[in-house]
């Protein structure tokens, strides 16, 4: 599939999506958001794809929404633009398949919000992360107020939103905002290693983990625990469960088919 503002690549069971507006630090305009949504749909409907990786070309992962558009947007355009961004982030978060944000450089504003919609974040040591919207007299609009708070807690999230400060990846790792920090030269290989490891697990079990964690985090503990138990009923009906248990008993590696 041909895109203008992103690149996609299928590599075995991995699907790479690279934001491709390096001259504008991969700022998110409507076109890019629409293309990203399409690419995610393609990856989602392809049975061979087990893990989706999102990254950016050049020195940024993504420097946020395209600020140069802000003064031209009518209120209706702004609503469309903001809604499209939210739809894309929600779609990524709610995919049945795991996603990894490979943060190669700046992840700011909408760029950090995109990374937060992914399940796992691996960052280059050189990367800087933040929500600088406050410096523009606005505030995060692609889910950052909610997802950052749920990821690192209220105090630290409010500090990042209120100061607009950029923090180095190592600090982000300390806060639990990124899972791992590695030198830029190792970023792709370390991300691939993790993606390949996850791609060998049962797709059904992975989908259920996402469902129970994502829905559970917004529910009272008792409801989350109940969802977990009900999911156990489902997982015990799968061929992947039989394969996993039999492989253990037969002392061999399992081959999961997602059934
Ligand atoms: N939008 C548009 N263009 C951008 C953006 C952006 N967010 N960020 C960088 N660029 C452009 C620059 O204008 C520049 O273009 P040009 O060469 O044509 O002048 C090019 O990218 C390179 O950038 P710099 O020269 O500034 O590179 P530096 O290395 O000097 O600085 C920074 C890098 C620190 C990342 C700097 O570019 C910067 O501060 N960028 C803005 C970051 C920001 O404020 N992001 C938040 C945007 S708002 C947002 O994301 C809200 C999301 C919710 C939207 C809701 C819908 C309406």
TrEMBL record:
Identify a single GO molecular function assigned to this protein.
hydro-lyase activity
The alphabetical list of record keywords is: Lyase
Entry keyword Transferase: no
Q: Where are the transmembrane segments?
A: none
SUPFAM superfamilies registered for this protein in UniProt: ClpP/crotonase
One of its GO biological process terms is: fatty acid beta-oxidation
Similarity section = Belongs to the enoyl-CoA hydratase/isomerase family.
Q: What is this protein called?
A: Crotonase
- Organism listed in the record: Metallosphaera hakonensis JCM 8857 = DSM 7519
């Amino acid at each position: 599939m041909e895109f203008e503002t992103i690149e996609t690549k299928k590599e075995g069971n991995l699907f790479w999506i690279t934001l491709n507006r390096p001259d504008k630090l991969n700022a998110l305009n409507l076109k890019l958001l629409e293309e990203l949504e399409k690419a995610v749909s393609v990856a989602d409907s392809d049975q061979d794809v087990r893990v989706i990786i999102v990254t950016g070309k050049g020195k940024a992962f993504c420097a946020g929404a395209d600020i140069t558009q802000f003064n031209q947007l009518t209120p209706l355009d702004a609503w469309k633009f903001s809604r499209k961004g939210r739809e894309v982030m929600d779609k990524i978060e709610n995919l049945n398949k795991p996603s990894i944000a490979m943060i190669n450089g700046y992840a700011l504003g909408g760029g950090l919000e995109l990374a937060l919609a992914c399940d796992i974040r691996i960052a280059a040591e050189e990367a800087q992360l933040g929500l600088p919207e406050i410096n523009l007299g606005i505030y995060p609009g692609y889910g950052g107020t909610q997802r950052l708070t749920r990821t690192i807690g209220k105090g630290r999230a409010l500090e990042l939103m209120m100061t607009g400060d950029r923090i180095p990846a190592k600090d982000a790792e300390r806060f639990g905002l990124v899972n791992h920090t590695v030198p830029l030269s190792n970023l792709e290989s370390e991300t691939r290693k993790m993606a390949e490891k996850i791609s060998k697990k049962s797709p059904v079990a992975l989908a259920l983990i996402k469902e129970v964690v994502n829905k559970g985090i917004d529910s009272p503990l008792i409801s989350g625990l109940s969802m977990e138990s009900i999911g156990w009923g489902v997982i015990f009906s799968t061929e992947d469960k039989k394969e996993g248990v039999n492989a253990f008993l037969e002392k061999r590696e399992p081959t999961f088919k997602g059934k």
